[in-house]
TrEMBL record:
Similarity remark: Belongs to the eukaryotic/archaeal RNase P protein component 3 family.
Tagged with keyword Transferase: no
UniProt name for this protein: PHP domain-like protein
GO molecular function list: RNA binding
One BP annotation, GO: tRNA processing
Gene Ontology cellular component terms for the protein in this record: nucleolar ribonuclease P complex
Length: 145
């Protein structure tokens, strides 16, 4: 699959990625373990969701040291609040096999972020499938880039 993800380093790049300036983007992958220089705003994220993009939350920083975990909770809670739980895709971002978790563990992480259990499970199944379909239709249909 040819899934194109953008990891914005500034608010300007985040706005460009979410507003649909780049047609070839399927997902916005946010660095959850680092401090951002911007906030995830509902208007910006709403543009991304309207354009069919999804936002990726990697859970491996939640398994790291205390400061990274604290930053992950802050960033992930901001993204969940801005998206209201829609359009999220959970990924591992694991560097080792021992960092992988079961889908139920990830659903529990979502519930810790005040995310509905159903929306948390959709981030593992339906939303991930939607990203693949978005990438497929972008690459293999008549209106392809």
């Amino acid at each position: 699959y040819d899934v194109v993800a953008v990891q914005p380093a500034s608010e300007k790049i985040m706005l460009a990625a979410c507003s649909g300036v780049w047609d070839a983007v399927d997902m916005v992958a946010l660095d959850m373990g680092a401090r951002w220089g911007f906030f995830a705003k509902h208007k910006t994220v709403g543009q991304a969701l309207a354009n069919g993009l999804s936002l990726e939350i990697a859970y491996w920083p939640a398994l790291a040291d205390a400061t990274t975990r604290q930053q992950w909770v802050s960033n992930a809670a901001g993204v969940v609040r801005a998206t209201r739980g829609r359009g999220l895709v959970w990924t591992s971002g694991a560097r080792q096999a021992l960092d992988l978790r079961t889908p139920y563990d990830i659903a529990n992480l979502g519930e810790a972020l005040q995310l509905n259990g159903d929306l948390s499970k959709r981030g593992l199944s339906a939303n991930a499938r939607a990203v693949l379909m978005h990438a497929f239709t972008r690459a293999d249909t008549l209106r392809a880039v």
